[in-house]
């Protein structure tokens, strides 16, 4: 509750009703972002602050635009604060003045509580304490100058607080008289307590001089309402200062001489605050591009114009590929520098009429207006992608970066901001799923895919409880002897009689964090199966399990693996964990977990080697045992000299580091022979066997590799044991 002054004195010549501003108050349920938007509206731009009321219309605080400016000036200020409550930034002890208070007592209250420079005004209330409106300190001081001039002490103090001075001009002598406090406000060395009008006018800028000459011209003497002038001058220290001049002409009834009187208000802080707040509210602090709020405003205008003129608007949604890796590997300073360089490249490519905006993170948007057809948009998208081909200089490092772009058109795809953004966003993710560094146009098919993803994610929530998951196993053979040495455990999901591709449901599990409990189940089932193999004739045959970075980040993950090995009685040396190269770069616990697993005796394999960013240093640091040559290189063996060279290089590199190599995706005898000639250690692929359900895998091992089996318990006796412990 604010500080309240509530009296009922005799009325002075003027009461507070004339000062009342019917300003719509803020609701206590509002967010900081909503408050910023309200402060930026045209009708509220003149106010230093806005009042906050509770559900009973009782004022509980004031929000100053200066406070908001301070918050938004901080790094990521708007992003961090925009969803927080207005209650967190308001002054909860505003000055409350009852409307029936006298002018002089109100002035006393203002001078007692407020100080220069004024950053807040006061709230006017009814007798019962409910909100009436806002009172502005500068209005109060102007009223005091007119009606309370007899109380010079109160008047001077109030004018000092408000940054307000009074003046009087005598037309006959052409001398203008200033109140003493004006000189420090305007910041000039010349003393202007009384000076010729021309000397006073000369201290202002040329534009302001024209306004003042017109104001004091004889033709203005007969105007009933003179305009309020905004004036500018350069102070002695070089600062540009802003002032608001108000006044009126009159003839002295006794002497008949013409005079003019008025006030000069220092509005420098207010103007700077307005400009800063407008900049902070509408532009990204880092890149200086329009932010999400200005972008939405411009997109709204573009859509309106498009529908009115029967033209098209294109929205391009850009995302920097592997931006997180740059942040993690090179640091956030390098990430920020990349964002600034991307912003510069985009703006240099496009027309001045186009809008480039940063929505946040590594997401940018481009609005193209007056588009004739999709080919025109495709040309722009190709130019953007080509511009990324030139490396970025980040802290003296030359870094290659690409972008994925989604495109939606108005009105053919959508005619609202939300729908257009959603369409472009989906198209962008489609571009990423197709391999990145490309653009995709929105299609209705993407909507169907989105609905399917939503439905699958819903089903995934209960898939583990319903027993819809099953492990398949794909054999891995020794290249030279064709001996079975291991099997990779692969998760399969059948729901509503439909088999869902792992490429479809694994990303959904990762995004919903279901990968953690499901991954725990996979590990236990794989270890249990491999342990039973050891007892029943497949001695020495290990099992490989794929791990997600989300699993490795769990603080209890290593302890869970150790407990699982103990529970299933599987030797750590028979468990291989497969991770992608990016895990080695993860600074959130994944790499440390791998190191601890290696110390337990668990083997570590790098899956899809050659497609990521890891270096030889990481391979040695984390005690990697195996490199898995990605199937994209295996497919072209003997048909593509580049793939041949890559395969040979990986095998040679691995062997020089004491690592083994497993080739994935082997499908032909020619590939098998090439890998055998190059001394690749292990083979995996459809040439050997497709992934098989557990029972079929053991049957395959029996029939294809009977020589490996010394004594084997009939599988029908073993299989129930596996199911019972699932």
Automatic annotation (TrEMBL):
Compartments where found: Cell inner membrane
> Superkingdom of the source?
Bacteria
Ranges for domain CBS: 19-80
Keyword tags? CBS domain
Q: Which PROSITE patterns has this protein been placed in?
A: CBS (PS51371), EAL (PS50883), GGDEF (PS50887), PAC (PS50113)
Principal place of residence: membrane
Source organism of this protein record? Pseudomonas duriflava
Supply one GO CC term from the record: plasma membrane
GGDEF domain: which residues? 311-444
Q: Which cofactor does it need?
A: Mg(2+)
Annotated InterPro entries = Biofilm_reg_signaling (IPR052155), CBS_dom (IPR000644), CBS_dom_sf (IPR046342), EAL_dom (IPR001633), EAL_sf (IPR035919), GGDEF_dom (IPR000160), Nucleotide_cyclase (IPR029787), PAS-assoc_C (IPR000700)
Tell me what this protein is called: Response regulator receiver modulated diguanylate cyclase/phosphodiesterase
């Amino acid at each position: 509750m604010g500080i309240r002054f509530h009296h009922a004195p005799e009325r002075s010549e003027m009461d507070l009703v004339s000062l009342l501003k019917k300003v719509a108050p803020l609701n206590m349920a509002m967010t900081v972002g909503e408050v910023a938007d309200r402060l930026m509206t045209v009708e509220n731009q003149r106010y230093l602050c806005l009042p906050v009321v509770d559900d009973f219309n009782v004022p509980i605080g004031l929000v100053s635009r200066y406070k908001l400016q301070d918050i938004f000036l901080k790094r990521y200020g708007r992003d961090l604060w925009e969803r927080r409550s207005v209650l967190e930034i308001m002054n909860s002890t505003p000055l409350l003045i009852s409307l029936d208070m006298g002018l002089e007592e109100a002035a006393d209250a203002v001078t007692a509580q407020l100080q220069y420079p004024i950053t807040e005004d006061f709230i006017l209330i009814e007798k019962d304490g409910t909100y009436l409106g806002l009172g502005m300190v500068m209005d109060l001081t102007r009223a005091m100058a007119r009606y309370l001039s007899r109380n010079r002490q109160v008047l001077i103090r109030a004018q000092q607080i408000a940054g307000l001075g009074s003046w009087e001009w005598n037309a006959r002598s052409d001398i203008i008289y200033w109140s003493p406090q004006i000189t420090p406000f305007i910041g000039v060395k010349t003393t202007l307590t009384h000076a010729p009008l021309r000397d006073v006018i000369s201290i202002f800028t040329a534009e302001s001089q024209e306004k003042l000459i017109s104001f004091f011209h004889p033709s203005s003497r007969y105007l009933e309402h003179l305009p309020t002038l905004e004036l500018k001058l350069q102070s002695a220290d070089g600062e540009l200062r802003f002032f608001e001049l108000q006044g009126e002409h009159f003839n002295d009834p006794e002497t008949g001489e013409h005079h003019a009187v008025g006030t000069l208000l220092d509005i420098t802080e207010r103007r700077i605050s307005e400009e800063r707040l407008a900049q902070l509210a509408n532009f990204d602090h880092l890149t200086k591009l329009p932010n999400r709020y200005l972008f939405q405003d411009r997109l709204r205008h573009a859509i309106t114009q498009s529908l009115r003129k029967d033209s098209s608007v294109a929205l391009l949604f850009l995302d920097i590929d592997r931006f997180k890796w740059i942040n993690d590997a090179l640091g956030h300073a390098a990430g920020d520098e990349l964002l600034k360089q991307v912003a510069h490249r985009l703006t240099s490519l496009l027309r001045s009429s186009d809008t480039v905006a940063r929505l946040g993170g590594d997401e940018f948007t481009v609005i193209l207006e007056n588009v004739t057809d999709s080919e025109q948009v495709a040309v722009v998208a190709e130019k953007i992608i080509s511009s990324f081909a030139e490396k970025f200089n980040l802290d003296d490092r030359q870094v290659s970066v690409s972008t994925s772009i989604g495109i939606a058109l108005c009105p053919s795809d959508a005619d609202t901001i939300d729908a257009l953004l959603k369409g472009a966003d989906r198209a962008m993710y489609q571009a990423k799923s197709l391999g990145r560094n490309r653009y995709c146009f929105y299609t209705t098919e993407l909507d169907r895919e989105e609905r399917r993803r939503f439905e699958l994610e819903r089903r995934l929530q209960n898939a583990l409880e319903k027993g819809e998951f099953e492990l398949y196993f794909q054999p891995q053979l020794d290249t030279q002897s064709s001996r079975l040495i291991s099997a990779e455990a692969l998760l399969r999901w059948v729901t509503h009689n439909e088999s869902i591709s792992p490429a479809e449901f694994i990303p959904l599990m990762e995004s919903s964090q279901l990968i953690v409990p499901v991954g725990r189940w996979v590990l236990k089932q794989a270890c249990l199966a491999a342990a039973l193999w050891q007892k029943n004739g497949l001695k020495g045959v290990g099992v490989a399990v794929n791990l997600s970075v989300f699993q490795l980040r769990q603080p209890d993950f290593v302890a869970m693996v150790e407990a699982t090995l103990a529970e299933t009685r599987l030797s750590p040396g028979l468990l291989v964990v497969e991770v992608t190269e990016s895990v080695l770069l993860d600074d959130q616990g994944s790499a440390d977990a791998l190191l601890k697993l290696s110390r337990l005796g668990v083997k570590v394999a790098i899956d899809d080697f050659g497609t990521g960013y890891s270096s030889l240093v990481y391979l040695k640091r984390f005690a990697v045992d195996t490199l898995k040559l990605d199937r994209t290189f295996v497919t072209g063996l003997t048909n593509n000299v580049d793939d041949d060279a890559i395969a040979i290089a990986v095998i040679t590199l691995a062997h020089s580091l004491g690592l083994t190599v497993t080739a994935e995706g082997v499908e032909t005898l020619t590939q098998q022979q090439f890998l055998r000639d190059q001394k690749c250690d292990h083979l995996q692929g459809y040439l050997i066997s497709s992934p098989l359900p557990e029972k079929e895998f053991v049957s395959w091992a029996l029939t294809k590799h009977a020589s490996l089996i010394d004594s084997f318990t009939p599988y029908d006796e073993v299989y129930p044991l596996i199911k019972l412990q699932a």
